[in-house]
Amino acid sequence: MSTDTLFAAETAASAPVEITIRRPDDWHVHLRDGAMLRAVLPFTANQFKRAIIMPNLVPPVTSVEAAASYRERILSALPEGSDFEPMMTCYLTDHTTPDEIERGYREGVWRAAKLYPAGATTNSHAGVTDIAALAPVLERMERIGMAVLVHGEATDPEIDIFDREAAFMEASLLPMLRRHEGLRVVVEHATTAETIDIVRAHASHAACTITPHHLVINRTTIFQGGLRPHLYCLPVAKRERHRQALRKAATSGEGCFMLGTDTAPHRRGAKQAECCSAGIFGGATALQTYVQVFDEEGALDRFEAFASLNGARFHGIPVNEGTITLVKKPSTALAAVSVEEEDVVVFRGGEPLPWSIGEIRP
Ligand code: DOR
Ligand code: ZN
Fold first, then answer.
1. Whose CA is nearest to atom 2 of ligand 1?
2. Is there an atom of ligand 1 within 6 Å of 234 CB?
3. Cα–ligand 2 centroid distance for 279 (angstroms)
4. Cβ-proximal residues to 91 (8 Å cutoff; 6+ apart), any chain
5. Whose Cα sits closest to atom 3 in ligand 1?
6. Which residues fall within 8 angstroms of residue 209, CB to CB, at 6 or more apart?
7. Which of 214, 217, 274, 346 has its CA 20 to 30 A from that of 180?
């Protein structure tokens, strides 16, 4: 899964040797549960101070009690001495009630709710079948100031997979933004230039997360020399012009663009399979990849805004106090992480990376 070709064309000649920024947050993470949670959590906890935890477990995290106990399982799986803070989310279904949403928010159990159109992606079958019918829940969220995080892909199997994000934006997101003008909406893992434009046009109450992989691969990379299952995720990477638009947006410094890795581990057997699961495990190489992109774009001075400021501001919480230093010093990424008798392949794993993680000050 080499991404060398794309990088080689873009490597900038002049760059400072290191950069120190406030500790970053990851606004979109899949930590899973059990053995997988224990295997992947240290990587996210090492890179980030806080992270928004996706609720698409089996069964999904739909109640206040389920979210509170998942949070406890994450805290008990943390490496000794870690100060990582998971920020929990509620999985919206057709049966979610406004009162349950408000209770979890007031009790400080969850920070946001995740809207999966039913069937859009991994473990989303219990998601929302009719977004218009969710209006009472969204109105309550608007009133209490709770953000909704949206997986923006249409689910009609007739729609070309590369057009599903665009179709969702037209049919569902724009109407939602118009109906709920005070609702804070995060479009998750944006993959198209058009989504970027929509977010920018609604920046008073909309934002989006951008993943490391969508900044460095395009849809052709998935087929480079053969089919590369470890580069398959949803939304699937799009054409090169979209990747370029994502890079410009992420490095623009604009407050509506924030870091969200969408690190989504699956065991090797589930990826190298007849029907490959969607998801890229980017948690172990996320900051190294993001900072490389900012370096290549000549925008290292805007990296802190994207990684450590914009998300906290959008969600209305304080930015982190500590710092992390990223050093332009080559390192080789770990190829894979063991989980019981199997492993999970690391995004850019085994490749030489030009940037490394340096000192972290709490
Ligand atoms: O590629 C993906 N994997 N996209 C998603 O939306 C879900 C995720 C997962 O949970 O594996
Ligand atoms: Zn995700």
1. 279
2. yes
3. 8
4. 55, 56, 60, 61, 62, 113, 114, 116, 126, 127
5. 279
6. 27, 28, 186, 187, 188, 189, 190, 258, 259, 260, 262, 311
7. 214
3-state class of 67 per DSSP? helix
Using a CB cutoff of 5 Å, list residues around ligand 2, an ion: 262
33 is a catalytic site residue: no
Torsion of CA 172, 173, 178, 184, to 10 degrees: 140
Which listed ligand is nearest to 188 at the C-alpha? 2
Q: Which ligand is nearest to the CA of 278?
A: 1
| Catalytic one of 25, 26, 262, 295 | 262
CA distance 324 to 304: 10
C-beta pairs of 237-241 under 8 Å, 24+ apart in sequence: 237/191, 237/213, 238/162, 238/165, 238/191, 238/192, 239/162, 241/193
Distance 16 CA to ligand 2 centre (A): 33
Closest CA to 98 of 130, 142, 61: 142
Q: Is 40 in the pocket of ligand 1 (CB under 6 A)?
A: no
pLDDT confidence of 16, banded at 50, 70, 90? low
List the domains of the chain with CATH numbers: 3-361 (3.20.20.140)
Query: In the predicted model, what is the mean pLDDT of the chain?
Result: 95
pTM value surpassing 0.90: yes
Relative orientation angle of helices 240-250 and 193-201, to the nearest 10 degrees: 30
Instruction: List the end-to-end C-alpha distance of the chain, in Å, as a whole number.
Output: 34
Instruction: Report how far residue 49's alpha carbon sits from residue 70's, in angstroms, rounded to the nearest whole number.
Output: 18
Residue 12 CA to ligand 2 centre (angstroms): 31
Instruction: Decide: 121 in ligand 1 pocket, CB within 6 A.
Output: yes
Per-residue pLDDT, 121? 86
The arithmetic mean of pLDDT across residues 305-332, rounded, is 97
Ligand nearest the Cα atom of residue 121 = 1
DSSP string, 162-183: GGHHHHHIIIIIHHHHHH-TT-
